[in-house]
Amino acid sequence: MFESGDTPLPTPREAEPEQHRRRMHDLLRASTSIVERLDLDVVLRRIVEAGMRLVDAKYGALGVIGLDGALERFIHVGMNAHVVAQLGHLPTGKGLLGAVISAGEPIRLEHLSSDPRSAGVPDHHPDMDSFLGVPVRVGDQVYGNLYLTEGKNGAFSADDQELIVALAATAGIAIENARLYDAARTREAWQAAIADVVTAMLDVSGDNVLDVIADRVAAAIEADLVAVATPHGDDDLELSAVHGVNADALRGRVYPAEGTLTAHALNTRRAVSADAQRSGEMSEWQTALGPSVAIPLFVGDEPLGALVVSRKSGGPGFTAADLEMAFTFAAQASIALEVVRAREERSRTATNRDRARIARDLHDHVVQRLFGAGLSLQAVSASVDSPASDAIETQIDVLDATIKDIRTIIFALSSGDRKGVKQLRDRLLDVVSDVTGTWSPPPHLSFAGPVDSLTSSALADDVVAVLRELLTNVGKHAHATVVSVRVALFDGWIQLEVQDNGRGIAEGAARSGLANIADRALLRGGQCEIISERDGGTHVRWKVPIDDRSHES
User: How far is CA 104 from CA 47, 72, 111, 171, 246, in A?
Assistant: First the structure.
């Protein structure tokens, strides 16, 4: 019999309702814990932990199903970091886990290894025996699946399954609320990015607009790498602007467009997403990353490129809300790009109009006056004796040279009107600007004869290449203070001369660049003359026939 003050032990019949009440209390407490938070990652982990407590499971996991029907996220509890690192990538929804997804019904196994669907367990995976998998749903919408293994008391019971099914119903509501909250935060982040990017784009030039897009998007939303890929030739894409992981190494990279996420976005004109671990549509530079979304950028019907936003491998995928807002971003960015382009077109038009006016004034007034002054001096020269006549003739020559210089300036000013046309003079002016932009004073450049109309495209390429090589050599080695460039076409020949007052070419110095220039002349039946004085500078005269039959043969 019991001693005074002792509490009698409950009979098995009395213990059963008590256990049931305790488990229902645990279920209520677990349900409360998972609905009191709205952060999706926190909610998902709490669901797993609550399920493990309810049925005394050693391991638990929750797979969240993405838009493509595969596992978008996989949250696991019970394995330490060392074991997880040995396993490598997390499950993607195959085997027994995939069976719970496809069946949409609970699966309970006494011995997991006895089921043929449990094949494909990776090396270093902990031993697991009993298994309980339950779909997490709200109505017909399946959000994911809750997996529990290795029950403390062996196989999971029917009561265990009933408890987890009830928990999963609450979990479905919690996940739906968390997703709605997450979608609201996503829209807020994208709207902030849209406003920031569009405002910033309107304050910069077209040359910097892609960098602004990548930089502001990277700062506004959760991403590890943001890049803008632009068309490069007919079949390739180039990473013109990159911010984030390994940006310096990726900026400027060119890669084939075919089959990539970027090309798919440009072809469909829609924001599209993929995961590097599951999709064959990623580029080689993205394979170390995870979920990515490509957003097409158009100006009218012209594809400017695509904004690519990527997260690290294993990171959260892009949701329907992300894609919706990404499409909105593309539309707003395209409008801003059109505004930027129109503004710059107006600026170019105004600049070209001013340049054309200056060119007309130079031609109609300055050149004509200089030409008239030259004629007057010639008349005076004929009426006087030497040495005054010789001095006057010298000044007439100076006036002729000045007129030629001004005509070169007029041509350069007028070149802005010839949109899309790059004649030989334009190209040579570009070379001088590119190579000698920092020189003080700049080279003196003059033209003589119809160098544009009588020069073939292939010959123009050679002339441009020779001038670039010669000016580069002057900049590297000559230490010159005066450089002159003259291009002349006469008697069926085109002649390029570059002269400087530098230190000349030292004996024994490498002449590979000059040898290439001489070879170009010989291949066209021409010649290259190099005159270099130790103290008197260098004069290079490159001359080839414009009728380049020897080159064509």
Answer: 18, 17, 21, 15, 42
Instruction: Say if residues 254 and 271 touch (Cβ distance below 8 Å).
Output: no
Contact 56, 153 (CB under 8 A): yes
CA distances (Å), origin 193, targets 172, 223, 310, 340, 506: 31, 12, 16, 18, 59
**What are 379-414's pLDDT values in tens digits?**
888 788 777 888 888 888 888 778 777 777 766 666
What DSSP designation does 371 have? H
* Backbone conformation region of residue 327, classed left if phi is above 0, alpha if psi is from -120 to 50, else beta: alpha
Instruction: Check residue 18 and give its pLDDT.
Output: 63
The end-to-end CA distance of the chain, in Å, is: 123
User: Which residue carries 């119809």 as its tokens?
Assistant: 450
Nearest one of 333, 338, 47, 33 to 196, comparing CA atoms: 333
Structure tokens at 278: 């599951």
Q: Which two tokens stand for residue 375?
A: 């004629």
Among 329, 277, 317, 258, which Cα is nearest to 293's?
317
